From TrEMBL:
SUPFAM superfamilies: DNA-binding pseudobarrel domain. Keywords: DNA-binding, Nucleus, Transcription, Transcription regulation. This is TF-B3 domain-containing protein. The lineage of its organism: Eukaryota, Viridiplantae, Streptophyta, Embryophyta, Tracheophyta. It is found in: Nucleus.
Length: 133
């Protein structure tokens, strides 16, 4: 299954790693990550996961685990559930009342940032707008 298009455009004062709309599995179980992310966050040969830290808008540190499946032809990267699910709940990204997303990016200092996103529809332009929450 192909990953959805990026939902959040360029990041001012930073470089986007990836963004995506959160599907039910992403919100309730684990975040499925685009395979290209492994180019920037490689997992050592013989291992199936690696830790990394990202900061939210309030400066809170989130210690996520990026993992790949242990069998099969393709890596299929994902974020392990414990911290990811805690992030989803803390940022109110789990409701069925709206569409939600996430963006990971490096700021100009090289620190990895993570933001929850909520989709709004602009009455002026009739266009969907993803805003950080």
């Amino acid at each position: 299954m192909a990953h959805k298009k990026e939902i959040f455009e360029d990041i001012p004062n930073g470089k986007k790693i990836f963004s995506k709309k959160l599907e039910k599995t992403d919100r309730d179980v684990q975040l499925i990550v685009p395979t290209r992310v492994l180019e920037q966050f490689p997992i050592e040969n013989g291992y199936y996961e690696r830790d990394f830290t990202a900061f939210d808008a309030s400066g809170r540190e989130w210690k996520f685990i990026l993992a790949i499946r242990q069998i099969g032809k393709y890596d299929k990267p994902f974020l392990r559930p414990p911290k990811w699910h805690e992030f989803v709940v803390a940022h109110g990204l789990s409701g069925d009342d709206a569409e939600y997303g996430v963006v990971f990016y490096k700021d100009n200092n090289g620190d990895l940032q993570v933001r929850g996103l909520k989709k709004y529809h602009s009455p002026l332009f009739g266009k969907a707008i993803w805003e950080k929450v």
